[in-house]
Specification:
The chain is 41% helix and 21% strand. It contains nine helices and eleven strands. β3, α3 and β4 form a beta-alpha-beta unit. α2 packs parallel to α3 and α7 crosses α9.
Length: 229
Amino acid sequence: MATLALVDDDENIVESLKMFFEAEGYKVRSYHDGQSALTALTETPPDLVVLDVKMPKMDGMEVLRRLRQTSDIPVIFLTSKDEEIDEVIGFNIGADDFVRKPCSNRLLSERVKAVLRRSRGNVELEGDQKPIVRGRLVLDPNRHVCSWDGEPVRLTVTEFLILLALAQRPGFVKNRDQLMDAAYDDQIYVDDRTIDSHIKRLRKKFREVDGEFDAIETLYGVGYRYKES
């Protein structure tokens, strides 16, 4: 069973969630401030993080920004209804989902399961998928592994799924709605800017490996496509 990390400065919320998820069969680790959580998440990564936004010492947004420098662990933000959170910013820095509290444990559990399925390439639902090879690009959906010209490229769950959707049919255009459907659960709404930001981050990561990377093409006013070899 998966290991979850719960990060929230409200000890009552953490204890309640910990008991619930342990009863569901998960292994659970808990933290009450951003700084200690970041250290632990970096040293011993879990399978998924449920991360509160507003915390002492280091808020959730900053934890995620720093975490994304070295890790693609799936992250669900937990936010209060009265907090004016720009979810677009959260998605743009690498969040996988937002859940507003107070919420039922069952709802959060379903969102956790959905993100874990995405992070594992829906192996449980669709069976093993063969690696996709497109010239110098190799994508392995079963292991969530990506490489370019033999060099590993670390991608978040959302980035991986967007690239997978494009690479499955080189030369065919995917509009933003199609990429949203490929990368996000149907309960999550994101706008066009979020997809554009993910594409920008994808290009940046590949150009760190290959400065001449140009395999993802933009068709202005239409969408994106993966260049045919």
